[in-house]
Design brief:
Number of helices: 11
Distance between the termini: 63 Å
Number of strands: 18
Radius of gyration: 33 Å
Strand content: 15-25%
Length: 446
């Protein structure tokens, strides 16, 4: 039927050709496969499977999913199964090139299932595999059996190791130890040799920096930004949850406003409700601002910053308490030396000022025109260049003069959220947005 590879499209799988067959007299469906490469090399041998009337032959593409073709066939096998004739399917998962569920062929063995799964990937552990088998005992309970497969012997063609498969068998191909731990870290900015570096398991940031010959003379290690994909994903999930909570609060506040308008805020009870909710006009104003804040929150993207003390790390030996074990996808950004202190939030002018020794937090706020009437002066906090935060909330001993201001620091003057009872999450969300803005600005300083 297929005379040569010239009859096939490019990227055709020459080792797994699927044949759907209907057996007389009831047209029961069975499945078998052929190794087309072996059949073309030895026509007329057992490898060259004889075809029957109504056979349907499928040649797969190595790069395309097989589900579209296989799933309808699996559905047909399921329809003809019953208590005495179990569904004829088997599975291969783990480090196969095309893991998934496949039809159980007549006299199918482990080697045939590996062939169906596109062979083993380069990360596969070739010495052994695990076969999970399910059996129904006396029609009452399902029992699981585990068997170790000598994969090396199977691949060599040893018939004794090539176990015959049964319905619902699952073959798990293991992964070579520490295969997925191989990764890279990116060094950017004022590093002598920036770029991507391959890392080995357990390697630390100090070790990678030594391989990169350290930092340049213009580096500002105090303002370095170390980011991690795992942290970024976790923070993004928290941002999404916070946005969902705020959306519910806005909807609840909107219902309160509708109720106030419907009642006209009449009578003593209405006056009390209006006072508690800030009045219908207050609720409407809060809702308008809340929608704007919610939009900013939805559009924000987490940075995944891990606060590190890079100067201390560089002074310490490899593997010290200050050192960081690096992971795949980590990134270190080392900016040029910074001379400014930035003031953001509820101030008259959001700007940056040239760092001057001796000036306090409040001095920099005053240089920005002072706080606005909406500012919460009791909760002003400082974000140092390394990302660490110093806050004075609830600390009587805190005085602005007690906190040393350094180049690269940011002073945040938050909004006083106590005047907006309709949105209890306002204060938390504004702080989150401020911190994201600071981290984003640090990342984009290069």
């Amino acid at each position: 039927m297929i005379r040569s590879v010239d009859d096939l499209k490019p990227n055709a799988d020459l080792h797994y050709v699927l044949i759907r067959r209907e057996l007389p007299p009831d047209r029961r469906i069975v499945v078998l496969s052929a190794d087309l490469d072996a059949a073309l090399r030895a026509p007329g041998t057992p490898a060259d499977v004889p075809l029957m009337a109504r056979d349907r032959v499928t040649v797969f593409d190595l790069q395309s999913s097989r589900d579209r073709v296989i799933q309808p066939l699996l559905d047909e096998l399921k329809l003809q199964s019953n208590i005495g004739y179990p569904e004829e399917i088997v599975q291969i998962d783990g480090r196969a090139n095309v893991p998934g569920t496949y039809p159980l062929e007549l006299a199918m063995r482990v080697r045939d299932l590996i062939r169906a799964g596109g062979g083993l990937s380069d990360a596969a552990y070739g010495a052994s595999a695990e076969l999970t088998r399910y059996k129904v005992i006396n029609g009452e309970m399902r029992q699981t059996e585990l068997a170790q497969v000598d994969l090396a012997a199977v691949l060599r063609g040893d018939p004794a190791a090539d176990m015959r498969l049964e319905p619902f068998d699952r073959l798990t191909i293991k992964e070579v130890q520490a295969w997925s731990d191989q990764g890279t870290i990116t060094l950017r900015g004022e590093v002598k040799f920036p770029g991507k570096y391959s890392i080995k398991q357990g390697e630390t940031l100090k070790s990678v920096l030594l391989r990169a010959s350290g930092l340049t003379q213009y580096a500002f290690p105090e303002g370095s930004v170390f980011t991690r994909q795992e942290l970024r994903d976790r923070e993004q999930r928290q941002l999404d949850l916070l946005a969902d909570r705020m959306e519910k609060d806005i909807a609840f506040a909107a219902l309160q406003g509708v109720a106030l308008n419907a009642s006209g805020a009449a009578g003593a009870a209405g006056a009390a409700a209006a006072a508690a909710a800030g009045g219908a006009g207050g609720v409407g104003s809060a809702l308008s601002a809340g929608h704007s804040l919610l939009t900013q929150l939805r559009e924000s993207r987490a940075i995944g910053r891990l606060v590190i003390n890079l100067p201390r790390l560089l002074r310490s030996p490899i593997g010290s308490a200050s050192d960081v074990i690096v992971r795949d996808g980590d990134e270190l950004l080392v900016p040029k030396f910074q001379q400014e202190v930035t003031v953001i939030g509820e101030v008259q002018t959001v700007t940056s000022h040239l760092y001057r020794p001796g000036l306090s937090r409040d001095d920099y706020v005053a240089l920005s025109g002072g706080a606005t009437v909406r500012a919460d002066k009791s909760r002003i906090y400082i974000v140092h260049a390394d990302g660490s935060v110093v806050a004075n909330e609830g600390a009587r001993w805190f005085r602005s003069s007690n906190v040393q201001m350094d180049p690269g620091d940011t002073v945040v003057v938050p909004l006083n959220a106590e005047h907006i009872p309709a949105l209890p999450l306002w204060q938390a969300i504004t702080q989150v947005l401020y911190n994201i803005a600071i981290a984003t600005a640090a990342v984009h300083t290069l």
